[in-house]
């Protein structure tokens, strides 16, 4: 597990989320920020001394977790944290932990509740202020709190007669069995706000944009008066926003490198160059390296091998350009908060994703120091910052696109023919989602080209053509995703247009699997 290090950097009020390995830890952190309080995820066993190194901590939240509190090796907090006087909210496993740690009783196994449930508020509570006395929640637990610790009172009970919430208002320790952070708990956000505002006394006025001035100042301070910074851009919102921030901090000492690896989306090269122009970035080093990449990929079928080759050639090309700039000391990268902070349950997944997402080792290879101005922000927060910096909507709103580009959307060998199909078909998918007003409703929508063929009929003649799979998913952060139930008219238009307009395609299929078990990208 790696965790963030915003320790003591600013005086903004913050809430620390102790990560006990729950699948929703990042979601809790995001909801706090949406509620207007800056949040960071920290290890579950953080000590009071470490907490005091963060400035202005207003509250602690104990996350959920996949274990049972009595299980051997189950994560437990440093008990002294419970005596710091900082308001605490326990969620699910966090709720059970508080009960167990403070002398209550938890039962294993037999009292499970999964999915939708109804709870009834049985005592007035600051947590439930302005809510109905009965509401729907999302439960996901096998164990349950049987007896509250001394000094606690039960404030809500589920329809299965289990303790759904308890509190010790005097000590400012509150806990809920259900997940306030998920959308399936409709009053969840209000409950979280009640905790942050009414219990923890937060002002709740933080906005992502507040980070911008701080970050610009800190980049300017780090880089100093004379040094140059190199920033690679891909056209994605993260790297473009990074470049815009560096530009704001140090002006024309920023050198942007943009490599076209021949695996970009339709019109992307032009879009990126226009965006850079709009930002008035003076030193743009654009390299069309598509031939080099495609040559290196010739005959390669294995997906991991393709990714490795793309990574290697990227570093080679980047190194060449960077050394021609001369005298740069820093490399800016668009790493964002979820790239950097793995939460317990997603840890394995994240480290795998990271290995192929980041161009590992680039700063060391180039002998440059890394600057990551977006390291504390979530994607939607980056988008907000990007808006303030004047990035064009076409960049801000565009769906995420993987570093290895269309190579991960083409089965087997990357050929000009399959790239053409993938590019054209994906452009149709994006256009039609735009036209239907649904582009912003999905995380990504694109086309994948299979090697498998399907027999087609055109007039009287039979001919075989490629199968194209359309994939559209909704997601909060790319870690998990649901397939998107697109309206049938939209699917129909996309399918007809692809077979009519993209030569060599006979069949269009729609991907109906979520992540997990499938990844979002195909290869
Ligand atoms: P997967 O396919 O792993 O994708 O479910 C999760 C999210 O990450 C993007 N992705 C990548 N991004 N380099 C990147 O910069 C990569 O190699 C890569 N592979 C996947 C993907 O588009 C999705 O948003």
Q: Determine and state the CATH class of the largest domain.
A: Alpha Beta
Bound molecules: xanthosine-5'-monophosphate
Q: Poorly predicted ranges (pLDDT <50, ≥5 residues)?
A: 1-8, 345-357
The structural domain count equals: 3
Report the CATH topology name of the largest domain: Rossmann fold
- Net shape: globular
In short:
With 523 residues, the chain is α/β, with parallel strands linked by helices. It has 16 helices and 20 strands. The longest helix is centred in the middle third of the chain and has 23 residues, at 303-325.
Question: What is the topological layout?
Answer:
Blueprint: E1 14-19, H1 25-34, E2 38-43, H2 48-53, E3 57-62, E4 88-91, H3 93-101, E5 105-107, E6 113-121, E7 134-141, E8 144-147, E9 153-158, E10 163-168, E11 173-176, H4 188-199, H5 210-223, E12 228-233, H6 237-250, E13 254-260, H7 268-278, E14 283-288, H8 290-297, H9 303-325, E15 328-332, H10 337-340, H11 347-357, H12 362-366, E16 369-371, H13 379-388, H14 393-396, H15 416-435, E17 444-458, E18 461-474, E19 482-483, H16 488-501, E20 505-510
Parallel strand pairs: 1-2, 1-3, 3-4, 4-11, 12-13, 12-15, 13-14, 15-16, 18-20
Antiparallel strand pairs: 5-8, 6-7, 6-9, 9-10, 10-11, 17-18, 18-19
Helix pairs in contact: 5-6, 6-13, 8-9, 15-16
Bound molecules: xanthosine-5'-monophosphate (XMP).
Can you walk through the features of this model?
The chain has 523 residues and is an alpha/beta fold. 33% of the residues lie in helices and 24% in strands. β13 (254-260), α7 (268-278) and β14 form a beta-alpha-beta unit. It starts with 13 loop residues before the first strand and ends in a 13-residue tail after the last strand. Residues 353, 356-357, 400, 402-404, 408, 444, 478, 515, 519-521 line the site of xanthosine-5'-monophosphate.
């Amino acid at each position: 597990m790696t965790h963030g290090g915003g320790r003591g950097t600013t005086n903004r009020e913050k809430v620390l989320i102790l990560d006990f390995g729950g699948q929703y830890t990042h979601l809790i952190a995001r909801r706090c920020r949406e509620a207007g309080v800056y949040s960071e995820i920290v290890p579950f066993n953080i000590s009071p001394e470490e907490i005091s190194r963060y400035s202005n901590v207003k509250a602690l939240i104990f996350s959920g977790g996949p274990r049972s509190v009595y299980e051997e090796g189950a994560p437990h907090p440093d008990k002294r944290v419970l005596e710091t006087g900082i308001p605490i909210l326990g969620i699910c496993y966090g709720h059970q932990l508080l009960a167990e740690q403070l002398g209550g009783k938890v039962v294993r196994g037999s009292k499970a509740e999964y999915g939708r449930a109804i709870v009834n508020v049985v005592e007035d509570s600051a947590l439930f202020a302005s809510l109905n006395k009965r509401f729907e929640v999302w439960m996901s637990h096998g164990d349950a709190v049987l007896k509250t610790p001394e000094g606690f009172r039960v404030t809500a009970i589920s329809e299965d007669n289990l303790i759904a919430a308890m509190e010790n208002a005097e000590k400012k320790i509150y806990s809920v069995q259900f997940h306030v952070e998920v959308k399936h708990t409709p009053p969840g956000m209000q409950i979280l706000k009640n905790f942050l505002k009414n219990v923890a006394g937060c002002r709740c006025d933080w906005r992502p944009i507040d980070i911008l001035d701080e970050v610009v100042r800190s980049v300017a301070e780090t880089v100093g008066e004379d040094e140059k910074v190199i920033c690679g851009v891909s056209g994605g919102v993260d790297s473009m926003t990074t470049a815009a921030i560096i530009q704001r901090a140090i002006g024309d000492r920023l050198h942007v490198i943009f490599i076209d690896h021949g695996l970009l989306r339709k019109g992307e090269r032009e879009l990126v160059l226009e965006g850079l122009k709009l930002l008035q970035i003076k030193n743009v080093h654009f390299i069309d390296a598509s031939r080099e990449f495609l040559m290196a990929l010739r005959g390669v079928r294995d997906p991991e091998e393709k990714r490795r080759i793309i990574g290697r050639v990227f570093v080679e090309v980047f190194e060449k350009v960077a050394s021609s700039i001369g005298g740069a000391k820093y490399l800016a990268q668009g790493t964002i908060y979820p790239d950097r902070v793995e939460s317990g349950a997603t840890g394995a997944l994240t480290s795998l994703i990271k290995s192929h997402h980041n161009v590992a080792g680039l700063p060391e290879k180039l002998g440059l120091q890394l600057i990551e101005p977006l390291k504390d922000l979530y994607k939607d927060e980056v988008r907000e910052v990007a808006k303030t910096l004047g990035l064009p909507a076409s960049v801000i709103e565009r769906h995420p696109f993987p570093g290895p580009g269309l190579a991960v959307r083409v089965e087997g060998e990357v050929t000009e023919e399959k790239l053409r199909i993938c590019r054209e078909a994906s452009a149709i998918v994006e256009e039609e989602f735009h036209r239907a007003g649904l582009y912003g409703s999905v995380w990504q929508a694109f086309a994948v080209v299979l090697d498998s063929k399907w027999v087609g009929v055109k007039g009287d003649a039979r001919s075989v053509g490629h199968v194209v799979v359309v994939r559209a998913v909704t997601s909060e952060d790319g870690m998990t995703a649901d397939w998107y139930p697109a309206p049938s008219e939209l699917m129909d238009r996309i399918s007809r247009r692809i077979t009519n307009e993209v030569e060599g395609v006979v069949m269009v299929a729609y991907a109906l699997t979520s992540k997990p078990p499938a990844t979002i990208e195909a290869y």
